[in-house]
Every structure is written in structure tokens, then in C-alpha cells.
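Render this sequence as a predicted structure.
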Amino acid sequence: MKEAAELAEFIRKSSSAGELLALADLEAEFGARTLPVSGPATEPDQFPALVQEAILCHNDIEVILDDSGGAWYFSERFMTGAYARVMLLKGQGPLKMMAEVIREHSRRYPRPVLLLLFQCHPFNLSNDVIRLCLKEMKDKPPYRDIAHLTTSIGNIFAYSTDHLDPDHAAMLAEWADVGQAENP
């Protein structure tokens, strides 16, 4: 129990700094220690049991899976599941991160994304990187569903054609950018 609490506290500390932890990170920190799990010292094959114990005994400890099925751990005391997902996507590069956020907004909400969003925390992309990613999305088949439009006041929004039709996306972007402010 004590070891699971220490592991949970380590995850919390990393989460408070805005970081996700992979299983390898946890093993590097705790695997070399002699940590009993209700008895003998923790062997490498027992380490996943310690992680599971930390998750079961500490309700704030969560796991999120990456595209390859790799587990990443975080504490909901310090970050939401949505923020953890952004951190996971951020680790896959700006192109994939932007595309997945745009797709998610188009599918879930449904609405286009103001590209200025990607200049803000937690994305922190420069205008040049955003422009380069938009250009690459046009040229690469896996990103051909990503389209962009410009509102009447000149702001650029992006959306997925798999989830939003161009006219609907244009209307939503115009409303978000101009209509809401003009119609209090």
C-alpha cells in the first residue's frame, strides 16, 4: 500500500508540472527500488501490479492510451482527461496534434477551430509552424479531410470535411467570429 501511495504521489507531482508519465518512466523511477507488493521485492513482472494498485487505491490516478496502445499516467487533481489527451498528441508532433484537435472539434462539438487557438497554451505553436502544418495537410493523403476557411473579418478556421460540410462550417465560423459579438 505504501509503495502504491508513493507511486501515486510521483504521478501527481509530474501531473502538477503538466507532464504525462509512460510506464517506462515509472519503472525507471521505481523499478530499481526494492518495493514490496504485499511481500517480496518488486520484480519487473510485478511492477504492473503495483501500477494497478496505485490506480485502484487512488481515484485521481488515470491512464490514457496512445495510438500504439502504450499507457500514459496522470492525476486528475492536476489535469483533465482532455488536457492529458492534448499532451499526448503534442508528443506526436504539431501536424498530427493539429489535425486530431480539428477533427475532434468537428466531430464532437461540431464546430471549426480558430487557428489562433494553436498559438495559445498548451499548444504554443508559432504562426509559421501553423502555416506550414496547413500546407502539409493539403499535400498529405492522411490529412486531406482538413480544410480551412477565412471569415469576413479575416480570421482563419479549420475543420474536418469528414464531420462538417463546408457551408455549415463557414456559417459556424462566421457566427463564432462575427455574429456572436454583433448580437449580444
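Summary. The chain has two domains: 2-87, 93-182. The mean pLDDT is 89.
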